[in-house]
């Protein structure tokens, strides 16, 4: 499987970066072809500019500033997003990547009525995140990250198998709990079909 792995964390020494590296190693060991995208490392511009906004629905022009990212997305059979949960959401840089790359004519067909999903090649839509909240706190807020990503997947690639992993209480987990989570990530992505 061709997998596009996207990291959205500003620090190369963060736990999220370790999760990203672990998942990539496991996917590679399992024989998958992986392309990586480090949004902060690339200096990805998350803001949608006014000129981009003006041509957003014009499929002949809307890719101009993000063509390389679109090419990688369309190459992929699987998508893996690795990020911290901040304020019950995805980091702004990841939201900006989704806003600017999942374009009409790329990720969905803009037409009257419901969207028509266009990422039909995707077989996997996966996310790994960390958050400071406990499992119960997350559920009390109706799990906004999982709801957002599920809605995104259903809009652009409903056929893709969802995979979601989260480490709760990131700020207070022990080293042992973090090692166990990394092992869980390794096993899950090593067994990915």
Outline the structure in words.
The protein has 193 residues and is α/β, with parallel strands linked by helices. 40% of the residues lie in helices and 19% in strands. It has 8 helices and 7 strands. The strands form 2 sheets. It has a 5-stranded parallel sheet with strand order 2-1-3-6-7, sandwiched between helices. It has a two-stranded antiparallel sheet with strand order 4-5. β4 and β5 (116-117) form a beta hairpin. The protein is globular, with a radius of gyration of 17 Å. The chain starts with a strand and ends with a helix. The model has no long low-confidence stretch (mean pLDDT 95).
Brief account:
By secondary structure, the chain is α/β, with parallel strands linked by helices.
CATH class placement = Alpha Beta
Given the C-alpha coordinates, what overall shape results?
globular
The profile of the biggest β sheet is:
5 strands, parallel
Could you say which structural class the secondary elements and strand pairing correspond to? alpha/beta
Average pLDDT taken over every residue:
95
Report the radius of gyration as a whole number of Å.
17 Å
Count of beta strands: 7
**Number of discrete domains:** 1
Strand content: 15-25%
Order of helices and strands: EHEHHHEHEEEHHEH
CATH superfamily: Flavodoxin domain
CATH topology: Rossmann fold
As a percent range, the share of helical residues equals: 40-55%
Please mark out the parts with pLDDT under 50 across 5 or more consecutive residues, or reply none.
none
Termini separation comes to 8 Å
Q: How do the strands of the widest beta sheet line up side by side?
A: 2-1-3-6-7
Which second-level CATH architecture applies? 3-Layer(aba) Sandwich
- How many individual helices? 8
